[in-house]
Amino acid sequence: MQAEDLILISVDDHLIEPPDLFAGRLPARFADAAPRVVRRPDGSDVWTFNGAVIPNIGLNAVAGRPKEEYGVEPTAFEEMRPGCYDIHERVRDMSAGGVLGSMCFPSFPGFSARVFAAAADKDLALSVVRAYNDWHLDEWCGSYPDRFIPMALPVLWDPELAAAEVRRVAAKGCHSLTFTENPAALGLPSFHDEHWDPLWQALVDEDVVLSIHLGSSGKLSVTAPDAPVDVMITLQPMNICQAAADLLWSRVLKKFPGIRIALSEGGTGWIPYFLDRVDRTYDMHRRWTGQDFGGRLPSEVFREHFLTCFIADPVGIQLRGLIGLDNIAWECDYPHSDSSWPYAAEELAEAAAGVPDAELNRMSFENAMRWYSFDPFAYRARERSTVGALRAEEAGRDVSTRSYDSGRFVRSGTGVELGSLVEQVTA
Amino acid sequence: MQAEDLILISVDDHLIEPPDLFAGRLPARFADAAPRVVRRPDGSDVWTFNGAVIPNIGLNAVAGRPKEEYGVEPTAFEEMRPGCYDIHERVRDMSAGGVLGSMCFPSFPGFSARVFAAAADKDLALSVVRAYNDWHLDEWCGSYPDRFIPMALPVLWDPELAAAEVRRVAAKGCHSLTFTENPAALGLPSFHDEHWDPLWQALVDEDVVLSIHLGSSGKLSVTAPDAPVDVMITLQPMNICQAAADLLWSRVLKKFPGIRIALSEGGTGWIPYFLDRVDRTYDMHRRWTGQDFGGRLPSEVFREHFLTCFIADPVGIQLRGLIGLDNIAWECDYPHSDSSWPYAAEELAEAAAGVPDAELNRMSFENAMRWYSFDPFAYRARERSTVGALRAEEAGRDVSTRSYDSGRFVRSGTGVELGSLVEQVTA
Prior knowledge:
The structure is a homodimer. The first copy, chain A, contains 16 helices and eleven strands. By secondary structure, chain A is of the alpha/beta class. The first copy, chain A, has one domain: Metal-dependent hydrolases (TIM Barrel). In chain A, the strands form three sheets. The first copy, chain A, has a five-stranded parallel sheet. A three-stranded parallel sheet of chain A has the order 1-5-6. Chain A has a three-stranded antiparallel sheet with strand order 2-3-4, with no helix packed on it. In chain A, a hairpin with a 5-residue loop joins β2 and β3. Chains A and B meet through α6, α7, α9 and α11 of A and α6, α7, α9 and α11 of B.
């Protein structure tokens, strides 16, 4: 298929929270405690909440920036492309890139909203989570219901409250919950604990997908403090295999057969190996480990529960039949540094050369629609939804890479080590 | 190719050290401090050294045992198949399984001999390492030079001594050094530190392969203490991707272009994804991370330095062209629980159905010979080296699974959790 004829729904993008996100959304008694943006002496904008200071990391908002200016330095809003934080600019960028639909993960709260959960005042924490979700559903997604898959933050500290929030947002049309890939790594009960059962039940009842994004354990994949940063960049996606194995062998899938999980930004090319491995593990070891999937293989169980996601993954496309044609969805990853926006359509068309149209459509948009109960065509004709049609709507928009350098932004230079990155990210 | 026509050299097997290994091999002043086998009240045999007690874990010596009796309990020598620890019985088991050649990793010292390195008396530690290496080269491999790829333990605490030991064993014909996949995880300088340069230089000078086995960081891949043990079993091989990334992006390959590394028991099916990932990481990020491979891609550099290894990996065989036909070697993993001995030949023949003979030969034995400077045909005619020919020599040998249960061995039963395993393994 030609790039212009693709229809693209991305199941993994990111939004940079705008400074006015919480304005008018919290009870008056929390006015002083609300998360807010502060400009630091170095000119960067940071979010503050509950004593924590969370910079907007440059690498998380590099859309449109020349690769020479990628880096991990904290940055200011005016150094970002406005599509990072402005919904109207975002939609225009999506159209210019040919992207019909998008699901946007949070930035400063962390993928599992652990920044909010850390507040000792749980009334405050709950108000902030709900305010964020309402903003995300009503403002971000609600402004363009044909363009966004709604996603909610979890209530991380209380499974009953978490379940209630899932039911509340589901009533507003939200079928995706962002969550951590490993609650045990955050000091919470693991996936193997009954603790979470009320949440799993709510997800099943409300047809909500548990979307676990790489890096959502709160830990980077670090081999050594002096390792080059390239090591971490390489390992992050495949590291989600830990969550895949953790959940596949857990009691969760056995007790909640309706639960569905997305391995967001985890890549797909390694999945066929992984499925062989789990089937062989089952064959060689189940007699002493006590695993029991009835008459089925772990790989079959995997395909019933897991959506795998890729940005650019020629091996995964080649092996799509071994992964499962219903289990693969494309991602854009705008505005992160792994995205090929605005040329992601061309990247996908090239990687999928020779793939039958019907199969490519499943990976590029149909699976995303079904898994996330999302129907853009209720609002927009399909013929107006292709890459070519969307781009025509934004013909003339400047999508060339340009420097957003205000004079302050400094490249990290050579020899960036993991230790320094971890320090900056977690400072 | 039919199973009987294969020639098999395994680049990853394991030996259980026999109780008399050190007899007569240490200076008299170390007689009391030598590693020794002790029978515990529960009937199991354990190695003791330097205050540490290291059980012979049942799961590491299950060759010939019914799968119902796999488990992690400590075991006794008479509960193991003698091929685990007796060189003559081992060779007969290899022949009965059709396996021509084998490289045997250590058991109780740990893959990087960290048990020996822990001794405060470094003269003692060095004597023990050298005694082990001499035993391995002279007794274990030396008894059947046509059947074993010699492998040495490292001197982990001193790079100059480590280099000297590499040169000493190389002079005796040894071209493989077992090592840790992550020295930083053991509290040592990382792969990114100049500390190890004398060792790397010796490896290059003497044409010795750095063989890093999964699990050699001293850490199991544990998601949560209450995770089922199946999680760890699934993740162990692919976890070596961390070492692959750590070394690929390190200064080691740039400063020592002759160095060669084997990712032992790491599997192969995930490698094509990994190579795509490192090339994309290089393309997207090198301008700010400062990585520089000259005009080459990271995937090309990988193929110059890394040998990937598989037990049973149909996806890896299918994708052999993307991995590199010179970069794949077969493993038997006798007597561990992931081995299909005595039917590993049939398993490989089935997985490689349709693969041209010349390509299968490279994976089943030719690459092993070249990477490890091993030539069994200097001792044994090729026509006497096939699976069929070797099996004919041991026709009638009992290789059926049988219970080695002395009445004491207890199956772990259902619901084995990672925490309990870690406790037993590290107790």
